């Protein structure tokens, strides 16, 4: 199955899903699991789709993703500031996307605006049965935050 097919399936699934929001994990952040399905032609792998909604100024705690998780991130609305591993911080706007390799550290993931909400679709290709998609980590040296 090619990545566009997986992404199309995730988008269709999200449009028909009826999951309830989960508890907020960060400050001004709500994560909703919208879809989870094993991938029939990739034994042992599943597709999990989450929507992360950020209030103005909202953010996720620094976290590490599951070692098996390849992640495609797509900004649905607003602007999201993100940093993966030791890469540069970047602001992604609605319609832009990025990916995270398996086992990535995500030190920065937040709404880039203090006045407008933002939302992100995170599509995980992960080992089936993987329960912890993210694990919070302590930052050794807090960095200053920049907002629009």
What does this 3D model show about the protein?
The chain is 9% helix and 47% strand. It has 148 residues and is mainly beta. A 5-stranded antiparallel β-sheet has the order 1-2-10-4-7, with helices on one face. A 3-stranded antiparallel β-sheet has the order 8-3-11, with no helix packed on it. Strands 6-5-9 form a 3-stranded antiparallel β-sheet, with no helix packed on it. Strand 1 and strand 2 form a beta hairpin.
Widest β-sheet, arrangement of strands:
1-2-10-4-7
In angstroms, what is the radius of gyration?
15 Å
SSE string, helices as H and strands as E: HEEEEEEEEEEE
> Would you tell me the structural class of the helices and strands?
mainly beta
Task: Report how far the terminal alpha carbons are from each other.
Answer: 39 Å
Overall morphology: globular
CATH architecture: Sandwich
Number of helices: 1
Strand content: over 45%
- The CATH class turns out to be Mainly Beta
Question: What is the total domain count?
Answer: 1
